[in-house]
Amino acid sequence: MIGILVVNLGTPDAPTAPAVRRYLREFLSDTRVVELPRMLWWPILNGPILRFRPARSARNYASIWLPDGSPLMVYSQRQCDALQARWDRQFPGQVRVKLAMRYGNPSVAKGMAALRDAGCGRILVVPLYPQYAAATTASTFDAVAKELRKWREIPEMRMIRDWHAHPAYIGALADSIRAWWQAHGQAERLLITFHGLPESSVLKGDPYRAQCEKTTALLVQALGLADDQWVQSFQSRFGAARWLEPYTDRTLVGLARAGVSRVDAVCPGFAADCVETLQEIALEGKETFLHAGGQELRYIPALNDNPLWIAAFSRILEPHWRDWDALENFAVSPESG
Ligand SMILES: C=CC1=C(C)c2cc3[nH]c(cc4nc(cc5[nH]c(cc1n2)c(C)c5CCC(=O)O)C(CCC(=O)O)=C4C)c(C)c3C=C
Ligand SMILES: [Fe+2]
Ligand SMILES: [Fe+2]
């Protein structure tokens, strides 16, 4: 059996300040995420940040929470279920798909153990980030490696690095945007917004910005947009340091002031809708735009479990595990961990 461990960032267990504090403490203690010296960061994190941010952040989560839980969890799980169902039909009994979260629940340790207990001697790790950043992709690798330090029998391992320019990904994005425009009409401008990153991470060698720009260029080309029909920006700035520019909030204000009245926003870096898309863009971004004089901002949903994306995603993933099933099948015994 081949195990597919799909890993997303993680999300609080509840939209409450204590749950958000637990989540943020784990997340923001990761040295891949905040690269400041511990001596400097520790007092800031345990002082103002964990004291004040959880309550504000919890309100943001509460505004987008679904009956089944946090959107990030709900959509990531649906994606995994849809992949499993598709492969069960095509390749019965060959793969087991399991969702894990880098921070919080269900943990990477639990996901790995579940795959081992299902007899998976080969595991493909799929960080749910189309664009590579050390803060996300490399941190996922760290968590898997840390868990494997506790195992005696290590399975055969592979990891997907990124798929920022994969034709199936670009095609699914373009198709979903075109379908949305067919149903709702097209605004004057398409805002293509990605999660931000400290500029210092890029200066240290992160390919993240270049990969976001490549995704944008390919998407714009696939949609056949002219230069004055789109704009790209970076959202979710955190802290005082310089982050990747242009910032999404300032871009929205600039568009409104330049007389653009209708904007459609899309977040191609998020495989699943979450607080950063549903709250920061669809609610807060809209408010920023309207406040600056714009008339309408509409958010185009992430790919989530859109059947068109599940088909494309399976095309991206299959080459990474299909050759494995041609090899002699072997299983790690459940008691080997
Ligand atoms: C130093 C801080 C942060 C870095 C670096 C960072 C990089 C980064 N994050 C994502 C994807 C997501 N981030 C999400 C939430 C989120 N991100 C940060 C901070 C950094 N991110 C915080 C503090 C939060 C929590 C929300 C808040 O308090 O504002 C999420 C959504 C999680 C959810 O539960 O919905 C995602 C997804 C990427 C791709 C990235 C680097 C490129
Ligand atoms: Fe983030
Ligand atoms: Fe945010």
UniProtKB/TrEMBL annotation:
Which CDD domains does the entry link to?
Ferrochelatase_C, Ferrochelatase_N
- Main localization category: cytoplasm
By its UniProt entry, which Pfam families does this protein fall under? Answer: Ferrochelatase
Q: Which reaction does it catalyse?
A: Fe-coproporphyrin III + 2 H(+) = coproporphyrin III + Fe(2+); heme b + 2 H(+) = protoporphyrin IX + Fe(2+)
Could you say which EC number(s) this protein's record lists?
A: 4.98.1.1
Whether Repeat counts among this entry's keywords is no
Compartmental location? Cytoplasm
Give GO BP annotations, semicolon-separated.
heme biosynthetic process
Tell me a GO cellular component: cytoplasm
The UniProt annotation places Fe(2+) binding at 195, 276
A GO molecular-function term, please? ferrochelatase activity
Could you tell me which pathway this protein works in? Porphyrin-containing compound metabolism; protoheme biosynthesis; protoheme from protoporphyrin-IX: step 1/1
Keywords, alphabetical: Cytoplasm, Heme biosynthesis, Iron, Lyase, Metal-binding, Porphyrin biosynthesis
Q: What does this protein do?
A: Catalyzes the ferrous insertion into protoporphyrin IX.
In terms of PANTHER family, this protein maps to: FERROCHELATASE, FERROCHELATASE, MITOCHONDRIAL
Q: Which family does it belong to?
A: Belongs to the ferrochelatase family.
**Entry protein name:** Ferrochelatase
User: What is the organism of origin for this protein?
Assistant: Acidithiobacillus ferrooxidans (Thiobacillus ferrooxidans)
Protein's gene: hemH
